[in-house]
Amino acid sequence: MVNADRRPYLANRVREPYASRSSREHMRQGLLFTLLSDLPTVWGALLRAKVYRRVLGSVGSSCFIEKNVHFHVPRKIFFGDRVFVGENVCFDANNIESEIRLEQDVHIAQNSIIRICRVDDGPTSDRVHISPNVLLNAYNYLCSCGGIEIGKYSVLGFDVSLIGIHKTLSGSHSSPMETGKIKIGEDVWLGAHVSILPGVTIGKGSVVGAGAVVMKDIPRYSIAVGFPAKVIGKRK
C-alpha cells in the first residue's frame, strides 16, 4: 500500500515524461509512442509525423520522423514544416516550463541528443531554439542550461557538443558548476568534434575547425581553431 504522503510525488513522476494531467492521457501518449516508434520504412516515418501531432506541442507539414525517436515532455517540443529527425534521436525538454523548438527545414541526423538540464538552484525554465535551415549531423549533443540558440543556415558537423553546464577545473570536489547560454549565429560552420562551453557566443558567419574547444566568444566572420580555440583569420 502506497503511503498517502507519497501519492502526489508518485503521480507527478508518472505524468512528468509526457506533461499530461491525467493517468489516462499518460497511458494514451505512451501507447502511441510504443506502437509507432519502431515502424520501419518511409511509411512509418510519415505516419509518425502525422500521429505525433496529437502528443507533441506541434508538428508542421511534410515532417519526416524516423524510427526509435524518443521524447521527454513531448508537449513542450515543437516542430516547424519539413523537419527531418533521424533514427535514435532523443529530445528531452525536462519539465513543463521549458521548451525545445525546431523551425522549418531543420535536419537532425541520427543518434543526436537535445536536452535541457537543470541545476538545483537554477531557473525552472529553459529554451532550445533552432532556426530555419539548420543542419545537425550525427551524434550531436546539445545540453542546455541557460538556453541554446542556433541561427539560420548554420551547420554542425559530426559529434559536435554544445555544453551549457560543466564543472570548473579548480581541483576541488566542491568546485562550482558553470552554466550559461550558448548562442550560435547565422551561417556558422562548426567542424567535427567541436565543443562549445557555457556562455559562449559564436558570431555570424564564423567557422570553427575540427576538434576545437571554444571557451570564449568568437567574433563575426572569424576562423578559429585549437584548444582553447583561437582566431587565426577572417572569413571572406
Low-confidence stretches: 1-15
> Strand count, sense and closure of the main sheet?
9 strands, mixed
Strand content: 25-35%
Give the CA-based shape.
globular
- Which architecture name of the domain at 82-167 and 175-234 does CATH use? 3 Solenoid
Structural class: alpha/beta
The CATH superfamily of the domain at 82-167 and 175-234 bears the name: Hexapeptide repeat proteins
Encode the helix/strand succession as letters: HHHEEEEEEEEEEEEEEEEEEEEEEEEE
Averaged pLDDT: 85
- What is the third-level CATH name, the topology of the domain at 82-167 and 175-234? UDP N-Acetylglucosamine Acyltransferase, domain 1
Question: What is the terminal separation in angstroms?
Answer: 69 Å
Give the C-alpha Rg: 19 Å
Output the strand order for the largest sheet: 2-5-8-11-14-19-22-24-25
Total beta-strand segments: 25
